[in-house]
Amino acid sequence: MKIREIMKKYDIRPSKRLGQHFLMEESFLYKMLKAAQINEDDEVLEIGPGLGVLTLKLSDYSKKVVAVEKDSTLIKILEDLVKDRKNVCLINEDVLKLDLSRIKEDYFENNCFKIVANLPYYITSPILMKVIENREIISKAVVMVQKEVAERLVSPPGSKSYGILSVAVQLYSDVEIVDLVKRCAFFPPPKVDSAIVKLDIRKEAKVAMPDEKTFFKIVEAAFSERRKTLKNSLRNNLNLSNEEIEMILKISGIDGSRRAETLSLQEFASLCRVFMDLKE
Ligand code: SAM
């Protein structure tokens, strides 16, 4: 059944609050499956199945699909749609409240699962951070996101859109934009264009660092005042004296007049190492 028919049959009014924009163009579903290299041994977590278009395709080509949907009205429709599918499990929950290790234990057999999803855009960043935090049990994520977010995810140091999310995602994955998707591919169309992004998740960080928590403490401090120099934002947000920050920058070989968005992963890791040697 096509999206419009399903909406009519069940009298659905898409919820703006929950970011409900349903994908109408089938070709993008196949592109997502292809990018995720879905095969019959794969176990897949789908976030926000909506009216089930992607869910059904994932169910056709993979071993098992677990789909998490917050909207209980949609869950009832989805139950109807997948009632003959033995390899689909629906969970009526907020994905941000889910314990992904529990999902793996309770629903999956493989060591790792894949994520394929047309994300609710209002919570893209926390979902991606959750993916990265659960990198031990996730092998790949292919997600539809707002185009601007996709650009942030792949942007290199030195570009305006490079920020905390870019650092976190690039540190633990190889990320690429698979395709751009115009807003008219959805119903109702969102206010922005979209992009399909693929993250090949790594278990280990791309650069060596002594401690992940301190690394992100430094990244957050550096980016918290984007218009200030690195020296000022690190000093202000890490409670350092002038002497201390000058020493840290000097030993790391980093010019304090630079801005956070010009620092590579390697340079953040150097800062982290020196900071820990001097302060902790
Ligand atoms: N997968 C469908 C498609 O491609 O047509 C729908 C995608 S729509 C962009 C996002 C979906 O995420 C909606 O169904 C929405 O109800 C659901 N959603 C919103 N917030 C959520 C949350 N916190 N947890 C789980 N699902 C959520």
From TrEMBL:
<feature type="binding site">
    <location>
        <position position="21"/>
    </location>
    <ligand>
        <name>S-adenosyl-L-methionine</name>
    </ligand>
</feature>
<keyword id="KW-0698">rRNA processing</keyword>
<feature type="binding site">
    <location>
        <position position="118"/>
    </location>
    <ligand>
        <name>S-adenosyl-L-methionine</name>
    </ligand>
</feature>
<dbReference type="InterPro" id="IPR001737">
    <property type="entry name" value="KsgA/Erm"/>
</dbReference>
<comment type="similarity">
    <text>Belongs to the class I-like SAM-binding methyltransferase superfamily. rRNA adenine N(6)-methyltransferase family. RsmA subfamily.</text>
</comment>
<dbReference type="Pfam" id="PF00398">
    <property type="entry name" value="RrnaAD"/>
</dbReference>
<feature type="binding site">
    <location>
        <position position="23"/>
    </location>
    <ligand>
        <name>S-adenosyl-L-methionine</name>
    </ligand>
</feature>
<dbReference type="InterPro" id="IPR029063">
    <property type="entry name" value="SAM-dependent_MTases_sf"/>
</dbReference>
<dbReference type="GO" id="GO:0003723">
    <property type="term" value="F:RNA binding"/>
</dbReference>
<keyword id="KW-0808">Transferase</keyword>
<comment type="function">
    <text>Specifically dimethylates two adjacent adenosines (A1518 and A1519) in the loop of a conserved hairpin near the 3'-end of 16S rRNA in the 30S particle. May play a critical role in biogenesis of 30S subunits.</text>
</comment>
<dbReference type="InterPro" id="IPR020596">
    <property type="entry name" value="rRNA_Ade_Mease_Trfase_CS"/>
</dbReference>
<feature type="domain" description="Ribosomal RNA adenine methylase transferase N-terminal">
    <location>
        <begin position="28"/>
        <end position="203"/>
    </location>
</feature>
<feature type="binding site">
    <location>
        <position position="69"/>
    </location>
    <ligand>
        <name>S-adenosyl-L-methionine</name>
    </ligand>
</feature>
<dbReference type="InterPro" id="IPR023165">
    <property type="entry name" value="rRNA_Ade_diMease-like_C"/>
</dbReference>
<protein>
    <recommendedName>
        <fullName>Ribosomal RNA small subunit methyltransferase A</fullName>
        <ecNumber>2.1.1.182</ecNumber>
    </recommendedName>
</protein>
<keyword id="KW-0963">Cytoplasm</keyword>
<feature type="binding site">
    <location>
        <position position="48"/>
    </location>
    <ligand>
        <name>S-adenosyl-L-methionine</name>
    </ligand>
</feature>
<dbReference type="GO" id="GO:0052908">
    <property type="term" value="F:16S rRNA (adenine(1518)-N(6)/adenine(1519)-N(6))-dimethyltransferase activity"/>
</dbReference>
<keyword id="KW-0489">Methyltransferase</keyword>
<keyword id="KW-0949">S-adenosyl-L-methionine</keyword>
<dbReference type="InterPro" id="IPR011530">
    <property type="entry name" value="rRNA_adenine_dimethylase"/>
</dbReference>
<dbReference type="GO" id="GO:0005829">
    <property type="term" value="C:cytosol"/>
</dbReference>
<feature type="binding site">
    <location>
        <position position="94"/>
    </location>
    <ligand>
        <name>S-adenosyl-L-methionine</name>
    </ligand>
</feature>
<keyword id="KW-0694">RNA-binding</keyword>
<dbReference type="InterPro" id="IPR020598">
    <property type="entry name" value="rRNA_Ade_methylase_Trfase_N"/>
</dbReference>
